[in-house]
Design a protein that fits this description.
Blueprint lengths: L4 H7 L25 H11 L51 H5 L6 H8 L22 H10 L33 H4 L16 E7 L3 H12 L5 E9 L5 H6 L7 E6 L5 H9 L6 E5 L3 E3 L3 H8 L6 E12 L4 E8 L2 E3 L5 E3 L14 E3 L6 E5 H7 L16 H11 L3 E12 L13 H18 L2 H6 L3 H14 L7 H23 L4 H4 L10 E2 L5
Parallel strand pairs: 1-2, 1-4, 2-3, 6-12
Antiparallel strand pairs: 4-11, 5-12, 6-7, 6-11, 8-9, 10-12, 10-13
Organism: Thermoanaerobaculum aquaticum
GO molecular function, one term: glycosyltransferase activity
Keywords: Glycosyltransferase, Transferase
């Protein structure tokens, strides 16, 4: 992000582009008294009527250095998106806030920001943020740099308040404890409610195959090592011409396995929905036929989500695998899904050597469909009429990003837990480019636009402009020159346009979290957040 003279010339000394300043800006509102407070409150009411300053924390004054963190909460201290049909917590209603509260902070002169946050030397007010959930930003150094870039003082970070609504601390790799011990008893008898870990929990697994006979045995062998947690496995075969069906049936004595052969290749989404219709467990695992779970994967992941009633999906650390036995390497396949303002989604760390940053628990935008644990209640919450969880218009590719976006808009969160590990062979590696993948590239181009039609409203397009436009022009130019086989994708998009415009309106009407609130996910360094357990 650029700042300096170019920004100063036009915006009075602010960095040239501050797309996510609303995440910090509300926390710098002044208190109710003092000279100039009335004028500042008037500006706040004008530009961000959904926000209000909070009183000082007890003691005020200078803030302790080691305990400065930012806990994002809604105005009542709870997470947004409560009410029927979504994750618990918060009051019913969508709680979008004023759209100008998100727009006004895109370009804000530093002098105006200083005026709104109070005169120098005044004790700062505790932050009140419109962020979705009680997450913490990772890394003091990164947070300090971000604050300085935004023209704010690092000393404005408030200390944790004992007994407040912020999430309890959790060390890397430790199991989170539920902040609401009574929650398990209160949720008894409901799918996905109560305890999320332990022997009482069962997991249903679905696998979709299409000529994956070479690695399928390793995949099913990994499932058989998960103990009694696997209640049922549904394998849907998309008209394979190799030995996939024979390999699958050879495991019927080792696993509670049901095999569903299809007469034609219906695509991943359709096959996955057929499998989901046969599973009734509170948790469902999507597993690719070239992905092998390491021992303890399910027990680690289920223990991590215990008591985390806002978690709609979870994923572990995927390592790249080699050979038909899917032997692990030192390279990362996925450490959770992240998204960008270009309208793209990426597997964090894909193709890179494992490093410390990817061994820490975190909140991420979504889970890659190669190995993703979903709460059944969350899938039912975002399903289209007829029980369509995975969008069948996508056929294959990007359907996991579409599901992740719908879950985020409904207030469900995704947990990355690196203690749960698996190995993924991944036939299509992002770092190897798009050469020789004509059919795949066509679906990828088509689904890029369908993904936005179904999930990105005008707020997202405003907040992420001009990055998505630049990427769109680049994709169109590539299809007109070096990848002409993908031109047919635009005809498919045109044919599906009315259907997906309707889906987009329906998803926007059902959304519990505004696109303004989701914007930070699309910009670094807020694409991942430090894990703090929340009930």
């Amino acid at each position: 992000m650029a700042g300096g003279p170019a920004g100063s010339a036009f915006f009075g000394g602010c960095p040239a582009f501050l797309p996510v300043l609303p995440a910090y800006f509300p926390g710098q509102l002044p208190d109710a008294g003092g000279a100039g407070a009335a004028g500042r409150r008037a500006l706040v009411r004008l530009f961000a009527p959904g926000l209000s300053p909070l009183p000082h924390a007890a003691g005020g004054g200078a803030l302790a250095g080691s305990s400065r963190r930012v806990a994002f909460r809604t105005e009542d201290g709870s997470r947004p998106g409560g009410g029927a049909g979504g994750p618990p917590g918060g009051a019913p209603g969508r709680g979008f806030g004023a759209p100008f509260g998100g727009l006004v902070a895109v370009f804000v002169p530093q002098r105006l920001a200083a005026f709104l946050r109070g005169q120098p030397g005044r004790s700062p007010a505790p932050p009140q943020s419109p962020g979705a959930g009680g997450f913490r930003l990772a890394g003091r150094a990164r947070l300090r740099r971000a604050l300085l870039h935004l023209g704010l003082r690092a000393g404005l970070l408030p200390p944790d308040k004992p007994g407040g609504h912020s999430c309890a601390a959790s060390g890397a790799g430790s199991r989170p404890a539920s902040p609401h011990p009574a929650g398990a008893a209160a949720g008894r008898g409901k799918p996905g409610a109560g305890q999320a870990g332990g022997s009482a929990v069962s997991v249903g697994v679905f696998v979709v195959t299409h000529n994956h006979g070479a690695t399928l045995a390793a995949t099913l062998e990994g499932l058989s090592q998960q103990g009694q947690l696997v209640a049922r496995v549904v394998l849907v075969d998309n008209n394979s011409s190799d030995e996939s069906l024979a390999v699958a049936r050879s495991f019927e004595g080792k696993l509670p396995l049901s095999v569903l052969p299809l007469p034609e290749n219906t695509g991943f989404s359709r096959a996955a929905n057929l499998a989901l219709a046969q599973l009734e467990t509170p948790w469902v695992l999507s597993l690719n036929p070239d992905c092998r779970l390491l021992p303890g994967f399910l027990s680690e992941l289920l223990a991590a989500v215990q008591g985390q009633r806002q978690v709609g999906s979870a994923c572990g650390l995927l390592l790249r695998g080699e050979g038909p036995n899917l032997l692990p390497t030192d390279r990362v396949d996925s450490a959770g899904m992240v998204v960008s303002a270009f309208g793209r989604h990426h597997d964090r760390g894909a193709g890179k050597r494992l490093r410390q940053a990817w061994t820490q628990p975190a909140w991420v935008f979504g889970a890659t469909g190669a190995c993703a644990l979903y709460r059944r209640e969350a899938l039912q919450d975002v399903a289209y009429p007829g029980g369509e969880v995975f969008d069948e218009g996508f056929f294959a590719y990007r359907e996991d990003a579409d599901l992740a976006w719908r879950l985020q808009r409904r207030g469900w969160r995704c947990l990355f837990w690196p203690a749960a590990r698996a190995v993924h062979g991944r036939g299509l590696k992002p770092e190897e480019g798009r050469a020789g993948q004509a059919a795949i590239n066509l679906h990828s181009v088509k689904n890029r636009f369908l993904l936005r039609l179904a999930n990105a409203d005008w707020r997202w397009h405003v907040g992420c402009f001009p990055f998505w436009l630049f990427r769109d022009l680049l994709v169109i130019a590539a299809c007109l020159t070096v990848e002409r086989s993908s031109l047919a994708a635009f005809g498919l998009v045109r044919r599906l346009w009315p259907q997906y415009r309707k889906r987009g309106r329906e998803n926007a009407a059902r959304a519990r979290v505004s696109s303004w609130r989701l914007l930070p996910w699309f910009y670094p360094p807020w694409q991942t957040r430090r894990f703090k357990p929340c009930g």
